[in-house]
Specification:
182 residues, mainly alpha, Helicase, Ruva Protein, domain 3, two-stranded antiparallel ribbon, 6 helices, 2 strands
Length: 182
């Protein structure tokens, strides 16, 4: 009997310890705002509005051309804590993030990680972001249309480009009804 009571007490004390450690770890992850004037609710990064309340890795994914993996890599290269909120960043940290995002090869980001590999014109590997990505996509489509490639023609006609069936799906325009014989 005594042994069972001691065993139960030990179990309870262990459960209390784990609950305390869980509550401590939850408390560490909560949003801590350093000063009222320092927190920015909306940041302007690379011509894009970024939510200040989101964690920095996920907030950066609002920028076109930046995904979760690339954002994670850039934060690690810039030595920024991933638990930080975007609004808590200092101007120096933001500048570091932007320079690494714009010049990834200088910071030893591998070529296979970049979103523009072996550019058609100059053969360079780059990471396109925001407006540059839109411009490059538009130029690529214009080039395909100009050389009358199959993909370019499909874009020009406004039909499916990647080999999908088009007999029944993807119809637009006027609806042609079926008349019933009387």
């Amino acid at each position: 009997m005594e042994w069972d009571a001691a065993k139960i007490l030990r179990r309870k004390s262990i459960s209390y310890l784990t609950l305390d450690s869980i509550s401590i770890s939850l408390h560490q992850q909560s949003l801590l705002v350093p000063e009222k004037g320092q927190f920015q609710h909306i940041l302007r990064v690379l011509n894009t509005n970024v939510e200040g309340k989101n964690k920095i890795m996920f907030a950066m994914t609002n920028i076109k051309g930046v995904g979760r993996r690339y954002a994670n890599l850039v934060c690690k290269k810039a030595d920024i804590d991933l638990k930080k909120r975007a609004g808590e960043l200092t101007n120096e940290e933001l500048e570091r993030l932007v320079t690494i995002m714009q010049n990834p090869t200088q910071y030893k980001v591998p070529q296979w990680f970049l979103n523009r590999q072996k550019n058609f014109v100059d053969g360079k590997y780059t990471q396109l972001l925001a407006n540059g990505l839109d411009n490059q996509m538009r130029e690529d489509l214009e080039r395909l249309k100009k050389i009358r490639a199959h993909r370019g023609l499909r874009h020009y006609w406004g039909v499916r480009v990647r080999g999908q069936h088009t007999k029944t799906t993807g119809r637009r325009g006027r609806v042609v009804g079926v008349s019933k014989k009387k």
